[in-house]
Amino acid sequence: MTVTTAPPPTGAGGPSPEPTAESTAAPRPRGRRGRILGWLLVVVLLLGIAVLSMRFVATAPSLSGPLNPESPSPGGARALAELVRQQGVEVQITRSRADAAASVDGRTTLVLTDPYTLTDDAAVDLLDSAERVVLLTSSSRMLRLLDLGADAPLSAGALDADCTVAEFARTGSIEPERLFDAAPGVEACFRDGSGAAALLRFTDAGRSVSLVEGSRLFSNKDLAQDGNAALGLALLAQTDRVVWYVPSFEDSDITGEQSETLGTLTPDWLTPAIVLLLLAGIAAVCWRARRFGPLVAESLPVTVRASETMHGRAHLTAKAGDSAHAAVAIREGTTLRLSRRLGLSPRASAHEVADSAADRLRVPRGSLHELLAGPSPASDRDLIDLARKLAELETAVDNAFHTERNLP
To answer: Which CA distances in Å does 223 have to 109, 179, 226?
Structure first.
């Protein structure tokens, strides 16, 4: 007897028809091993970025602070340093006072801002090591240590050199941000009407020390204004070499009593205990976390309609791409419906149902074993073919019953 082809019943939970040419089968998701390797790669990449970031933060020199010769920020002095290099002067930047003292000689200018990270003795020793010193920022402490003068009230307006220092004769006018009253024996340049000066220079036995508040005059933002650049060259480009000392806390000689911190107040075993607890927590999360695997059937805590359960499980099976599990469910449903139609026990095996259906359809026994109890399909297309054949088998068995009833 020839088995006729008919579409599967829509209300009996049968599979959907084969997709048309325009539709494509949903791609199967990656396996569990691929997901684990992907997450491990992401974690390793994040850890690498964190380690590199910490290394850069720990090793990169700070470009903050006024008149840093390496800083291109508006408050830095990189433009002045490059301008001095263009005059053929070698500019050496150092953050070590020992290196700075060892690098200066009779043809070298020592340039620095207020060495706030050094004690008074260390600052004086550094300044005494050079025969030509230029202080680009002023402070009350440096005025006191060098005995150059005292602060004076600031008057508005541009000031000319108006002093006997030859290199300042053609610098032009400047607008200072701080004025000083010169001490006896100290040359005062760029003076206002009251005699207060913007630049102080002390010369003794061939050694000179110049002090000016240049935080704004020599910054990258304001260097091109008035005679600021000319004044910077007049101060820094008079020797063959410039040693520019940049103060840093790593080079500081200031010591003091360290205050008690949370780390010093806690016992030594606390940190290892915290680390151990964190590791135990991570292990517990990995142990009890959701594990991805094949779908399992479980009893529902509430009563729902069979159609909702069918659609929900079908959606989960399709999302997981588990064609083998879907094939088992379809075969079990077909076997149960055929056993009822053929008058067999609901616990009848698939082979028994196949033999009974073969007898009903008058085909050789064993021809339906592979259809009801064969290997699982390897792809979605094989699953669709299996569902169609099972639907055709159910339709053929139903037609056989109707044919027998209509015989005389």
So the answer is: 20, 19, 8
How many domains does one find in the chain?
2
- At position 366, the amino acid (one-letter code) is G
Q: pTM higher than 0.85, yes or no? A: no
Q: What distance separates the 2 farthest-apart alpha carbons in the chain?
A: 142
Q: What is the mean pLDDT of the chain?
A: 80
In a domain, 47, yes or no: no
Do 244 and 310 belong together in one domain? no
Element (H, E) at 356: helix 350-361
> Cα separations (Å) of 217 from 5, 76, 196, 220, 306?
95, 11, 18, 9, 85
For residue 159, what are the domain limits? 78-251
Residue 327 and residue 216 in one domain: no
Strands (E), 343-403: none
Identify whether 182 is part of a domain.
Answer: yes
Query: 345-350 — which CB contacts under 8 Å span 24+ positions?
Result: 349/373
Q: What parts of the chain have a pLDDT lower than 70?
A: 1-32, 34, 53-65, 256-260, 289-295, 300, 304, 306-307, 309-310, 314, 402-408
pLDDT of residue 398: 85
Residues, the chain: 408
Burial status of residue 69 (CB atoms within 10 A of its CB: 0-12, 13-18, 19 or more): buried
The token duo for 207 is 């050694």
Whether 179 and 314 share a structural domain: no
Residue 9 lies in a domain: no
d(C-alpha 71, C-alpha 79), whole Å? 9
Give the integer Cα–Cα distance in Å for 282 and 302. Answer: 34
Task: Indicate the DSSP class of residue 251.
Answer: G
